[in-house]
Amino acid sequence: MLDIALIAISFKLSHMFRYGDTALQHQYSIFFVLFALFWWIVSGFKYFFFRIEGFIPFEKKTAELINVFILHAFLLSTCIVVFNLEDLSRLLLLYTYLLTALLIGISRIILLLVNRYFSKSDMAYSRYVIIGTGPAAMSLRDTFSSEEHPGTKFMGFFDDNTDAVNPHNSQVRGTLADLKEYCLQHRIDEVYYTLPLNNREQIEDLTEFADDNFMYFRIVPDFSGIVQKEVNMYFYHNIPIISIRREPLEHVTNRIIKRAFDFAFSLTVILFLFPIVLPIIALAIKLESKGPVFFKQLRPGKKNRLFLCYKFRTMHVNNQTEQQATKHDPRVTRVGRFLRKTNLDELPQFFNVLLGDMSVVGPRPNLVSQLDQYSKVISKYKMRHFVTPGITGYAQVSGFRGETKELKLMEKRIEYDVRYMENWSFMMDMKIIFLTIWNMIKGEKNAY
Fold first, then answer.
1. How confident is the model at residue 182, as a pLDDT?
2. Cα dihedral sign for 68, 70, 73, 75?
3. Looking at the domain 125-222, which fold is it?
4. Whole-model pTM?
5. % helix / strand / coil in the chain, to the nearest 5?
6. Which among 185, 180, 191 has a CA at the least distance from the CA of 215?
7. Which of 388, 421, 391, 395 is nearest to 409 (CA)?
8. For the CA atoms of the chain, what is the radius of gyration?
9. 71: number of Cβ within 10 Å
10. 280-287 own/partner pairs: CB under 8 Å, 24+ apart
11. Is the torsion defined by CA of 93, 97, 102, 106 positive or negative?
12. What are the residue boundaries of the Bacterial sugar transferase domain, all occurrences included (predicted)?
């Protein structure tokens, strides 16, 4: 609501600077609705939603704000081109963006300062105690004590079996028998239970006590003996299920969103871009060297299922198709070098996307020979095949593209592929597509 109000003010001021009055003309009133709608859509996605609580560092908030402005400008520019909105004043649009960035930036700083002020005041403190002094209790206390979690005040540990050498013994306020009286005397808001979950009567008693005295009782399971990294827990009806690895694309809704975008995006490219570029590229390939326009090769896809991957032919016809292209590779034609540098050789893969063998964004499908080679020496190599391979990927826009002469280069590529799987979001896909287009414009130094 605040953002939309600030955008409206920016439009009014921009119109005044450009035309001398604040009464928006009809086309700018419509454009304001479009501008605000795009802002609401872009800033509302999970990884770009601006929360004003202090749990997110200021640097990350600033980076997210910049990302949203870049993506918003990209989408709006696309809309202007597609709908041929040529009568809009470019100067007014520039004024609007500058004022919107200024006003929203100032509003974020003010909200942050107000939040910090109230977070540091006594009225904002949420007083909490921790039952137990084990690893889970210490991790919880350290997490809440960090600067990223203001507004909480640690009041002490309670445990019947404290370790004599525990460095935090001075913060132990007593045994579990002392807990209830202490909570009532010090107006505790939250109680965190980190002990083993085998004492059902104790847990039920503490739950009832917390409910009766308007406290939040939270259980913190200790998984340190089971897994050594972050896990995800969700419920299927009333059954708790632990997922060792975070995989957003294991959820049907996310897969539907991704597939719907893939289908719409690839169909758009095929219908509007291919009729223009296909004859030009095909003619250039044919004029330079003999052979087919398209090159097709079996590649491992999702769950290692092989599929025919299509590309524009960039090499002279040869019998070494399972060998990676290298710098100054004599097999690569002059036209092919340009196509590889600009990623245009990958355009036919939009047919693979339309057929469902590939996605617009995902781990790049490697050669079959690479699957055999690297799956034996890189432990997480096969994990990248949990998801559908993509025309472009997180590793490629992060600088890990082209020849993998050393094992560590492939390891880094796999590391980014796994990161993509574990942190997927629709906005992440949009960011990767934007960076791919940017790399196409400036050229890829590692594309041979």
1. 95
2. negative
3. Rossmann fold (3.40.50)
4. 0.58
5. 55, 10, 30
6. 191
7. 395
8. 28
9. 20
10. 281/312, 281/335, 281/339, 281/344, 281/347, 284/335, 285/312, 285/313, 285/333, 285/335, 285/336
11. positive
12. 258-441
Q: What is the DSSP string of 32-68?
A: HHHHHHHHHHHHHSGGG----STTS-HHHHHHHHHHH
* Identity of the residue numbered 189: D
d(CA 77, CA 403): 35
Q: Where are the domains of the chain?
A: 2-120, 125-222, 252-442
Q: List average pLDDT for each run of 10 residues in the chain, which is 448 residues long.
A: 87 85 75 78 52 53 76 78 73 86 88 73 76 88 71 88 78 92 93 90 94 91 62 67 75 89 94 91 91 91 91 86 72 88 89 94 87 79 87 88 73 88 89 86 64
Sign of the C-alpha dihedral, residues 128, 133, 134, 138? positive
**The one-letter amino acid at 377:** V
Q: What is the pLDDT of residue 226?
A: 59
Q: Are the beta carbons of 169 and 161 closer than 8 angstroms?
A: no
Q: For residue 365, give the nearest of 385, 337, 380 by alpha carbon.
A: 385
- DSSP state string for 153-216: EEEEEE-SS--TT-TTGGGEEE-HHHHHHHHHHTT--EEEE-S-TT-HHHHHHHHHHHHHTT-E
Cα–Cα distance for residue pair 48/428, rounded to 1 Å: 10
Phi and psi at residue 245, to the nearest 5°: -120, 135
Sign, CA torsion 165/166/172/175: negative
Q: Which amino acid is at 409?
A: L
Alpha helix (H) residue ranges in 289-361: 334-341, 349-355
The single-letter DSSP state of residue 425 is -
> Using N-to-C axis directions, what is the helix angle for 334-341 and 274-288, rounded to 10°?
150
CA-based angle 289:293:294, to the nearest 5?
130
How do strand 294-300 and strand 306-312 relate by DSSP bridges?
Answer: antiparallel
Pairing, β 239-243 against β 232-236: antiparallel
Residue of 101, 92, 120 lying closest to 39 (CA atoms): 101
**Euclidean distance between CA atoms 23 and 172, whole angstroms:** 66
Residue 144 tokens, joined? 């809440």
